[in-house]
Amino acid sequence: MAVTHVRGAAPGGRPAPAPSGVVRPPGRPRDTRCDTAIIQATLTELATSGFGGLSMEAVAAAAGVGKGTVYRRWPTKGALVADALATLAEPYEPHDTGSLRDDLVAALNSVRRHSIQTLSGRIMPRLLAEKETHPELFETYRQQVIVPSRERVASVLRRGVAEGELLADLDIDLVTDMLVGPVSYRQYTSGSHEVSGTRIGQIVDTVLGGIRLC
Amino acid sequence: MAVTHVRGAAPGGRPAPAPSGVVRPPGRPRDTRCDTAIIQATLTELATSGFGGLSMEAVAAAAGVGKGTVYRRWPTKGALVADALATLAEPYEPHDTGSLRDDLVAALNSVRRHSIQTLSGRIMPRLLAEKETHPELFETYRQQVIVPSRERVASVLRRGVAEGELLADLDIDLVTDMLVGPVSYRQYTSGSHEVSGTRIGQIVDTVLGGIRLC
Amino acid sequence: MAVTHVRGAAPGGRPAPAPSGVVRPPGRPRDTRCDTAIIQATLTELATSGFGGLSMEAVAAAAGVGKGTVYRRWPTKGALVADALATLAEPYEPHDTGSLRDDLVAALNSVRRHSIQTLSGRIMPRLLAEKETHPELFETYRQQVIVPSRERVASVLRRGVAEGELLADLDIDLVTDMLVGPVSYRQYTSGSHEVSGTRIGQIVDTVLGGIRLC
Amino acid sequence: MAVTHVRGAAPGGRPAPAPSGVVRPPGRPRDTRCDTAIIQATLTELATSGFGGLSMEAVAAAAGVGKGTVYRRWPTKGALVADALATLAEPYEPHDTGSLRDDLVAALNSVRRHSIQTLSGRIMPRLLAEKETHPELFETYRQQVIVPSRERVASVLRRGVAEGELLADLDIDLVTDMLVGPVSYRQYTSGSHEVSGTRIGQIVDTVLGGIRLC
DNA sequence: ACATAATCGAGACGGTACGTCCCGTCTTGTG
DNA sequence: CACAAGACGGGACGTACCGTCTCGATTATGT
Description:
Order of helices and strands of chain A: HHHHHHHHH
Number of helices of chain A: 9
GO molecular function (chains A, B, C, D): DNA-binding transcription factor activity; transcription cis-regulatory region binding
Domain HTH tetR-type (chains A, B, C, D): 32-92
CATH superfamily of the largest domain in chain A: Tetracycline Repressor, domain 2
CATH class of the largest domain in chain A: Mainly Alpha
DNA-binding region (chains A, B, C, D): 55-74
Number of strands of chain A: 0
Protein name (chains A, B, C, D): TetR family transcriptional regulator
Strand content of chain A: under 5%
Radius of gyration of chain A: 21 Å
Number of domains of chain A: 2
Largest sheet of chain A: none
Region (Disordered) (chains A, B, C, D): 1-30
Largest interface: A-B, 40 and 40 residues
Oligomer: homotetramer
CATH topology of the largest domain in chain A: Tetracycline Repressor, domain 2
Helix content of chain A: 55-70%
Shape of chain A: elongated
């Protein structure tokens, strides 16, 4: 179940020597390849077993690392998961094709793809389940993943308002919910069939029908 | 965290002696109060700890019965949870106030209330997390809880179509998603503030703005 | 490395039902076969690895028993070893052939045999090594094994005094040391060759030469 | 529990530069103060924890030295302990006061004192316990410590034979056992009180009573 | 009334996973 | 090169449960 084995890494993967001028602690420095392997294994385990079912031992084994190496860096499971979630941050990349509708469709398609294909998307329902028990973890996830994702939709909407295509007093947050909500909700709870591209177009059109200037 | 303790039940709670004419196995008959206590404890544990964190031992303890009493009835955790989920079925109660908008708002408010106040609503994210691992459990939940809940909204929409208030070729499933989706999505993923009654009205109005005949 | 496997024991080995009139705790009673298997394994491990090298896990494995079964009975290693040592008690069997010399030789031969052939004899140097760290354990061993062993020699000497064959004011404890000491000392510290029967006779004769009435 | 800290040593303690004319390996020469500190720490640890409980890491820490410094000199624990035991050799110092009895008493007193006061005496039972597992270590100890100690007694006895005070065909080894045995045996196994000076006199007298010419 | 037979609470059992600790090895920078 | 410092993989330890099992006590039914 190992994601990245440290021992198998290419020799060239070793980190460069520390830049001069930085005080370094004595002794053998920590191997940064272990950090990445552990974080990656944590995310995989999180997606597979959830926070409750995640064990430090399984993470260490999946990372190909001794248990002590994990505990030396993160004293608790919560701290490890929190740091792992923090790496999920996605850069905000606005796109502007000129067409308001096309940009919204594109943004929602990216939401859809995220939930299916990425590790982060598979982690989402696991964290949702633990939201009552560990609200801070889901909050981290929300800030790192959900908020940027919503922001892509919201920025398109704001542009529509600025360009006079949408109602001037539009509640951006509300409309974002009305676009992202149906896609995300359906994606996660549907029995088998996922949300299709056609359906996303219909969702956008229906919402636009109610908020566009006429 | 025991919900119902068998031992503490009033003597009058005992089931009536079996009706004559029915062949009964010899020996002491099973105590039906144990069944209900175990099912109830299972649902509570499911809401509290999720499927992965649920243990037969904890269920037995919460129900105030011995472990053997649980295993005598359900050999596996999955069978127990499946039976427990099957009891969540909610009766379908349509309401018709004459106003399409008011009925939709009422139906969505019921969705909102369900997710917050009921045990079933707290179980939902737990099962969602296990959907990949145990799809049959979530499917049971969907049939027992989600489908009836959506049906309340869909029936109102169908009535609107029949009465000529809504577009004739309306995609009921799609619009149901667009009404339930934003509420449910926001309710479960929001940081702190829940969905307000006002917002539900806005959601209904926005959707109606795009699908109402004009 | 298992000494006695519980599972493989004959069905007839089950303990008899408790005598009536004794209050019994509820639940499944403890299996006494586990107790004996654990004690036996403890003594074997003690002889093999000493007190410091003895681990509860190894004892459990050697006894063919789960670790919990050991900890349920003895919370600490010290308590387990103490109880194990208490079972080493040997019944005192005086022998009287009429000849003072022959009886002393026989008693010393029994000391010699004990140190070589018995588990208890192999445990002795292990406990001696831990005498500074855990004096109470060695004290238990002394009372259970060493004292009775010395008493066999001392009782013969006392008889010799009573029958007028030995000096009336003989220091029994001292002479016991002078008989047991050379045998035990040589037995444990000698490079390879053990103490022979001939040598034991010489030791007895030499001591008798100094304390016999002449 | 460090015996000698290298780091804390006075600068003057550095070894003198090597005499010219000797071929020396290139690079920094080994610090001889480390050797002595490690050996000393090994003996202390051996007395405190025994062979099984002794770890290279603990030795290094007690010596105030890095672990690598120990492993560079001795690859295994056995090699280190063997070298440490080899340093325990005691010079043989016969004494002759003219009185056979007094010399024997003095020799036995030295045995007694050794077992109590010296590090070597506290190591003795530790090694005894490992005699089955590591016979070569105890053999080293025997040659370095036990044999010289016995020789002091034996030489007095031989002198007694030569001077005609003892039986001509005396078994020196046997009588040595009979003198050293009771003292050592009692010293190590006694519950609390040690062997007194008076008792040593009694032992010597009793043995002499049986072997002296009359 | 009394034997029969299955249920029930309680808890012991073998097994396993957990987090901690520590060992011996390896890898840094400094002298 | 030697040396300290300490990170690393591996493994053992004691704990905590899990699901199964085995007790005595209880409770209905048939004779």
